[in-house]
Amino acid sequence: MSEAEPPRRRPVTRRIDQHLTRLINALYPDERTRPGYAKLARQIREATGGTLSGTYLWELASGRKHNVTLEQLDVLAEFFGVPPEYFINDDVTERVNSQLRLATALREAKVRSLALRAEGLSEESLDALLTMVDQARRLQGLPLVEERGEDEPG
Known about the structure:
The chain is mostly helical. The protein has helices spanning 16-27, 37-48, 54-62, 70-80, 90-105, 109-118, 123-139.
């Protein structure tokens, strides 16, 4: 490795910052009311008994530090309600991220209302609704949502 190249991070720690930031954004979607790292560290300490400083939390979330211990991963996982494997296993990460996207979408009253109204409809009616929603997403320039069904292998 030449001196100009940045040091390579190991696969397990490579995306800790992305995972942590995604969890913070999911828990506090409104940037205006999102706590700072010192307050978030205090909330984590109060909820779990684990100790992470605000500075260390910021360093993890910003990618400046990635030397997280298993105990610290456990504390973060407990606070955010995810399995500790979320931070190190890509399959678990994707499954949890899919659940986070759903939970985030269901925060919107109209999305929730649409989902509740669709309950009990026939497969044909649900397929028609999905086609209409996909078309509306295309018209608005939004990406299509790829989601596996519950009965599909995962």
